[in-house]
Write a structure and sequence with these properties.
With 157 residues, this protein is an alpha/beta fold. The chain has one domain: Metalloproteases ("zincins"), catalytic domain (Collagenase (Catalytic Domain)). It is 41% helix and 15% strand. It has a four-stranded mixed β-sheet with strand order 1-2-4-3, sandwiched between helices. The longest helix has 19 residues.
């Protein structure tokens, strides 16, 4: 199923890295991940993501990524099936390893969001292992590297 993919940046100074659609297409076409057919990727800042994090997760702090799947299995209209990924580049750049390219960090976090849209989570060790295995396949195929994550929320159980 084709995916409609749109990128928005609320920060005029931030340029999203190239290759994000390639990552999404690989995840859908090669790994057969079931995600909503309409994906919005929104690059935002600390203030907005902190508000969203507080509203939807009860955490009053900024984070690197939030993912929302607004689709329901009962929904018949593909236009109504939407997923959104909010990424906070400032948070990622501040918390990524100094030797890592910030664009690579953003791509890794984007991969994490795609896997969340497909219904995977990391609340238990078992879930985390499954999710990491899928992320590993995507990273190896499109980024040519193994899973390296600096997402502090990823290890929460």
């Amino acid at each position: 199923m084709p995916v409609n993919f749109h990128i928005f940046s609320e920060n005029q100074k931030f340029n999203p890295p190239a290759g994000l659609k390639k990552i999404l297409v690989f995840a859908v076409d090669k790994l057969k991940l079931k995600i909503p057919p309409n994906i919005n990727l929104i690059f935002t800042g600390n203030r907005k993501i902190k508000t969203l994090n507080r509203k939807f997760r009860g955490l009053n702090k900024p984070t690197d990524i939030l993912t929302f799947n607004y689709s329901s299995k009962q929904e018949k209209n593909p236009e109504a099936k939407i997923g959104e990924i909010f990424i906070n580049p400032d948070y990622i750049q501040k918390n990524s390893k100094k030797e890592e390219d910030p664009n690579q960090s953003i791509k890794k976090i984007f991969i994490h969001g795609i896997v969340h849209l497909a219904g995977y989570d990391h609340k238990t060790k078992e879930q985390r292992k499954k999710m990491q295995a899928i992320e590993q396949k995507i990273q190896k195929a499109v980024l040519g590297e193994r899973l390296l994550t600096n997402n502090p929320n990823y290890l929460e159980l």
